Q: What sequence folds into this?
C-alpha cells in the first residue's frame, strides 16, 4: 500500500520529537534501570560539562579543528591534483594508480604510528593523518568525475577546436564537480576522525587527547561531552561543504 | 559553385588500417555547395560515421575527401563546420544563452576567424528569447534541440552536419522544427547534411536523398528531389509526388537493410 506523504511541518517536527524522546529516555529511564553514571552519564550531566569546563573544551576543540581543516584541504587538494595528472596521462595512471590502491588498503590505525615517527608529536602528523584519510575517496571520485563527459560532449569540443585546457576547464572539471562534492561530504567526517585518531596516538591537546584522558580518569561526562563536540565538528564541516555545493551546483 | 563535399573511394573503419570492420567502403559522394542532402539508411550503415569523417572527428582509412575544397582538418580548424547531435549535448551547468555562446569561449586560440556574439539574435530566431536564462533541464526536448541548433549556427558555419537531430522528438514538434530548419537553410545558404531514420523527414527536407546500405556502407540510391518540389525546396508533405518518392525510397531502404 502506498503511504501518504508527510506534511512539511511533520517532516521537521518528527525528527525533533524522535531526538527528544531518546534524550528523555536516556535522562530518566537509564538511571532507573541502574546504569551507573560513570558508564553512561545523563544528558544534563553532559550538558553541565559544557557550562563548567567550557574553556577546557574550547582549548581542545581548537587544535582538532585546525588539524581536521588543514588535513581536509591538503588531502583533497592533493587528490584533485593527482586525479588531474592521472586523467591527462594514462601512462602515469597505469603505473601509479595500483600503488595508491595498495596504499589505501593499509588501515589508518596501522599507518598512524609511522606517520608520528616521521613527523614527531606536533600538529603536523595529525594533519597528515587527516589528509591521508581524505585523500583516497576524493582521488577515485575525481578521476571518475573527470572522465564522465560523454563521447558526444568530447566530439562537440573537438568540432569547436577546443584546446586541452579549454576541454578541462569547460567540460571535464564542471562534469566532475558533483562527484567531487559527494566525496568532500564524506571527507568532512573522515577528516575529523583522522585528527582524533592522530591525537589518540600521541598528543596532550585536542579532542582526541581529551577523550583518552577522560576515559582513563573515569570522567565519563567529560568523555561524552568531547564525543558530542567531535561529532558537532563533523556536522559543521559537512554543512559547510553542502552550503558551498549548493552555491556552485545549481543544476 | 564549388562542391561542398567531394569523396572518392572513401574507406572508413575502426581498428586501424587492417581493420576487419569497414563501416564505409569505396564511397563516392559529391555534394553541391548550398544544397540540402538527406542521408537515409539502416542502423550501422555508416551514416553517422560519414558525418564524423566530414567533421574531422574520424580519419578515413583510404580514399580522398575534400570539404569546401580543403581537408576536413582545415575546415574544422577554421570552424566552418557546425555539428548537431541526436541528444542535444547541452552542458547542464550552463544557461541556454551560455550554451549557445560556448563557441565563443573555446577554440578561439586556434581560430583564424573570430566569431561574433550573435546569441541574442539566434535565440530570438529559434523562439528561445524568453528562455535564455533557463538551465537545460528546465527545457523540453524540442527546446533543447533548438538550443543545440542555435549553438551550431553561432559561428555561421558553411556546412551544417546534423546527426538525427529530431530523432527523439514527438511528431508535431519534429514537423515544426523541420519547417524552421528549412527556413534557416533558405536564409543562410549553408550546406546541410541531414542524417535521419525517417523516410518522410528525409523526403520533406532534402533537395536530394541518398540511401546507404550496411556491411559495408555504400550509396545504393541517389534521388534528386528537386523535380518534385517547388522553388526553394518547398513542398507539401502529402503531395502525391512526394508520397511516390517516399515509396521509392522505402523500397531502396528495404533492399539496403
A:
Amino acid at each position: 500500500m502506498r503511504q501518504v506523504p508527510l506534511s512539511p511541518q511533520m517532516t521537521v517536527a518528527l525528527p525533533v520529537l524522535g531526538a527528544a524522546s531518546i534524550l528523555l529516555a536516556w535522562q530518566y529511564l537509564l538511571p532507573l534501570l541502574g546504569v551507573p553514571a560513570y558508564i553512561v552519564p545523563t544528558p544534563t550531566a553532559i550538558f553541565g560539562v559544557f557550562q563548567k569546563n567550557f574553556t577546557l573544551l574550547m582549548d581542545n576543540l581548537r587544535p582538532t579543528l585546525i588539524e581536521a581543516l588543514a588535513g581536509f584541504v591538503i588531502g583533497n587538494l592533493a587528490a584533485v591534483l593527482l586525479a588531474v595528472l592521472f586523467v591527462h596521462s594514462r601512462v602515469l595512471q597505469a603505473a601509479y594508480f595500483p600503488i595508491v590502491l595498495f596504499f589505501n588498503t593499509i588501515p589508518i590505525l596501522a599507518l598512524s604510528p609511522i606517520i608520528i615517527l616521521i613527523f614527531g608529536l606536533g600538529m603536523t602528523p595529525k594533519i597528515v593523518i587527516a589528509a591521508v584519510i581524505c585523500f583516497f575517496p576524493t582521488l577515485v571520485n575525481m578521476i571518475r568525475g573527470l572522465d564522465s563527459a560523454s563521447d558526444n560532449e568530447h566530439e562537440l569540443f573537438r568540432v569547436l577546436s577546443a584546446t586541452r585546457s579549454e576541454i578541462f576547464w569547460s567540460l571535464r572539471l564542471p562534469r566532475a564537480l558533483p562527484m567531487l562534492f559527494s566525496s568532500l561530504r564524506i571527507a568532512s567526517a573522515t577528516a575529523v576522525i583522522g585528527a582524533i585518531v592522530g591525537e589518540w596516538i600521541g598528543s596532550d591537546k585536542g579532542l582526541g587527547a581529551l577523550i583518552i584522558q577522560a576515559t582513563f580518569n573515569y570522567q565519563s561526562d567529560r568523555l561524552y561531552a568531547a564525543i558530542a563536540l567531535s561529532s558537532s565538528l563533523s556536522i559543521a564541516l559537512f554543512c559547510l561543504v553542502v552550503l558551498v555545493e549548493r552555491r556552485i551546483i545549481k543544476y | 559553385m564549388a562542391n561542398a563535399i567531394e569523396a572518392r573511394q572513401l574507406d572508413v573503419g575502426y581498428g586501424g588500417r587492417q581493420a576487419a570492420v569497414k563501416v564505409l567502403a569505396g564511397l563516392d559522394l559529391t555534394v553541391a555547395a548550398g544544397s540540402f542532402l538527406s542521408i537515409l539508411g539502416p542502423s550501422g550503415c555508416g551514416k553517422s560515421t560519414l558525418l564524423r569523417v566530414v567533421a574531422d572527428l574520424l580519419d578515413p582509412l583510404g580514399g580522398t575527401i575534400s570539404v569546401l575544397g580543403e581537408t576536413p582538418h582545415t575546415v574544422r580548424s577554421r570552424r566552418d563546420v557546425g555539428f548537431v547531435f541526436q541528444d542535444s549535448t547541452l552542458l547542464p551547468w550552463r544557461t541556454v544563452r551560455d550554451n549557445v555562446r560556448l563557441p565563443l569561449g573555446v577554440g578561439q586560440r586556434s581560430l583564424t576567424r573570430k566569431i561574433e556574439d550573435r546569441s541574442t539574435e539566434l535565440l530570438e530566431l529559434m523562439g528561445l528569447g524568453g528562455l535564455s536564462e533557463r538551465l537545460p533541464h528546465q527545457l523540453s526536448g524540442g527546446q533543447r534541440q533548438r538550443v543545440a541548433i542555435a549553438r551550431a549556427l553561432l559561428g555561421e558555419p558553411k556546412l551544417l552536419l546534423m546527426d538525427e537531430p529530431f530523432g527523439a522528438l514527438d511528431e508535431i514538434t519534429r514537423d515544426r522544427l523541420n519547417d524552421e530548419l528549412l527556413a534557416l537553410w533558405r536564409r543562410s545558404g549553408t550546406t546541410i547534411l541531414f542524417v535521419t531514420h525517417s523516410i518522410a523527414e528525409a523526403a520533406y527536407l532534402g533537395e536530394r536523398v541518398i540511401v546507404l546500405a550496411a556491411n559495408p556502407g555504400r550509396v545504393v540510391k541517389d534521388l534528386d528531389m528537386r523535380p518534385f518540389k517547388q522553388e526553394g525546396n518547398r513542398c507539401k508533405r502529402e503531395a502525391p509526388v512526394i508520397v511516390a518518392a517516399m515509396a521509392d525510397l522505402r523500397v531502396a531502404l528495404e533492399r539496403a537493410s
